[in-house]
Amino acid sequence: MQYFIVIERMQMFNTRRRRSIAGVVSVLAISSLIGACSSDSSSSDAPTAAAVSAAAESSAAPVEESAAAVSGEVSADALSTAWADDWGKVGLTNPGLTPTDAGIVQVDTAQYAKEGPYTIGFASQGPTNSWAAIYDETLKAHATELGVAIEYAGADGKEDKQVNDINDLLAKDIDALIVTPMGPAVKGPIERAAAQGIPVILCTGIVDTTSNVSRVDRDNRLNGALFAEWIAQQVGGKGKIVMLSGIAGVPTTETRKAGAEEVFALYPDIEILDKQYTNWSPTEGKTVMEQLLAKYGDEIDAVWSDSGLQDIGVIQAYKEAGKAIPPMTAEPLNGFLKLAKENGVKFLAVGYPPSHSSECLDTAVSALEGKPVSSFVNVGVPVFTDAENDQFVKMECSDDLWLPADLLSKDLLASLKLC
Amino acid sequence: MSAGIREQTDTRSPRDWASLTPVLGLVAILIIALFLAPSFFQPANLGNLSRQAAILAIVAAGQTLVLLVRGIDLSVGAVMTLSMVIVARVSEGNDDQLVGAIGAALLLGLIVGVLNAVLVVGRRVPPFVATLATAVLIVGFQTAWTQGVPGGGIPSALAELGSSRVLGIPAPTYIALIVIGIVAIILKFTILGRWLYSAGGNPEAARMSGVPVAWVTAGAYIACSLLAVFAGLLLGGYAGYVDAYLGVGYDLDSIAAAVIGGTSFAGGAGGVGRSLLGAVVIASALNMIVLTGADEWLQLVVKGAIILVAVAVQTTRWSRPRRGG
């Protein structure tokens, strides 16, 4: 309601010139007020969860060896484990892809070791969607458990704001810095932090720098490839499919798509009828699918999709067209899981749970304790099909809940009206 | 598109060739579609297309009213989204609370419309700045209120309305035709319509001849916001999901539809029937590109090109007859 006060203030300006000044001032004031309320007009580019990593995440790009690395020895890391294990979780075998050589090393963090209690800076996206809201709250809740103080700065999804945020955090005497990068421009402040001897953890996203101690993320190439191999098995290695991606040009989107195309290239009898972007919007997903149905009718044997968001629209489009719903790939978003259960949809879901932000905090704390950390921590995610949906879906909870949500407290879920 | 909707042509240049451009554009798109995307003409696709155009046309009708009084409204997209979030949160997905929830959403539309009107008419803030500020304000309010989590649910009655079909044609198409018909009749046959055109065409002269220019202008902004609420509810019903980014893009698309239809940025010339045609042109072009399987970038390029051509044609038009009056 403060903004109305601003408008009231304008009453004191009477001459026309003063009025126009008042107009401009009030607009600026309104904008900055809104900024304080963590608005995000630019989040139109980042309508989903996965867009948190929209910043610059690309697992295909090699992670350069960390400057802080002292041991060149490649460890049996979580990424290799994921590449070895995730296929088998749903009875698939790797069709012959090799994990990206990320040059993952164990980083000696002895130079950062210090006594607690710790204060850790967290430069995050800010609660611009349900995924990001849970992401922030999980990390804060975990910090309370660990007795770590968090200095938080939400960037409203904006790269330029995050540059300032990090600089502000550095002025606050933090022991470590966790950054969810909003774009390449945060490279400078991250390197400044590293130069000050502060260990930096990149959490969901990548920046072209060698100065971070670790990066905690999910290999999206693996996600895309898992989706594609499952689709290939569903159609028996021969059939016609469509591919629905998120936001054109965003690394999460393009990395998943590229991983899928690598797999589909191994199946000459699979014809990709169409590739479309849906901006991770259920509404656009429905519109696009309706058009594809009008064009291809019953030809489509399966739908490769990089997120559960557009799948919500896909299922609705099929239902309204009165056609049998084909197998599709998804993320465990509750709204999708509910629809899939109600309509008996066959699916493969690969998770991207926002609660992995707690792993970023664990990594930062390890660094401060002087324990070696991996330069890349692959987030372990649930991989499951419709057969196991009942273990994940929460019919009584909000469509916006990302699952599994076991790590989240009931109070938190209730306060966000998620459950 | 429909009988009963007449074009509100500028009486000063009735035979202007530019008023034909949206029709020519549509014909061009149909011819291209015939070769590149024959599935465009399948009944199922034409039904989808009519719904896409219908929702945009409702927003564009409101936008047209504002353009007629020399304004612009950049807050319609934000209003669409927030009205859907309000309905979802207030009703919690229950049909029996739907009426109250729609009432709350309309109240939001009223508040935003009044706020825009106060800024533009009362405080003489340029419409572009005023409505942009309102849009940012609404998005900020929504984020602060929902913490990024829209929550609630779409009542099934609304979902039914947004996605059902009657005689193969989507329900929103009928609704849009009725709404636009009503607005067109008001513009054409009532004193309100005449006031609107005269207030936009020549505010000074209108004021001297007793037209309540300030009230008429304010009314245009309020009507525009209310129509945006209406479109937001239909789109939300169609989506069947509380999409926090529902109305994104509709502010610029609605302006584009109005401009392509031939409504002038300079006020006083244009009409909702034309904007309906503009909406059909935009929706057809985008629909056709998706069907051709072209890349995402081409979709943006085509949309930009259509608007550029429309504006170019229009600017050459209003530089001539405007002064002579």
TrEMBL record, chain A:
The keyword Signal applies. Pfam families: Peripla_BP_4. The keyword Ligase does not apply. One of its GO terms (cellular component) is cell envelope. One of its GO terms (molecular function) is carbohydrate binding. This is Unannotated protein. The lineage of its organism: unclassified sequences, metagenomes, ecological metagenomes. Coiled coil: none annotated.
UniProtKB/TrEMBL annotation, chain B:
One of its GO terms (cellular component) is plasma membrane. InterPro entries: ABC_transp_permease. The keyword Transmembrane helix applies. It holds the Pfam family BPD_transp_2. The chain crosses the membrane at residues 20-41, 53-86, 98-121, 128-145, 174-197, 218-241, 247-269. GO terms for molecular function: transmembrane transporter activity. Keywords: Cell membrane, Membrane, Transmembrane, Transmembrane helix. Coiled coil: none annotated. It is a multi-pass membrane protein. The keyword Nucleus does not apply. It is found in: Cell membrane. This is Unannotated protein. It comes from freshwater metagenome.
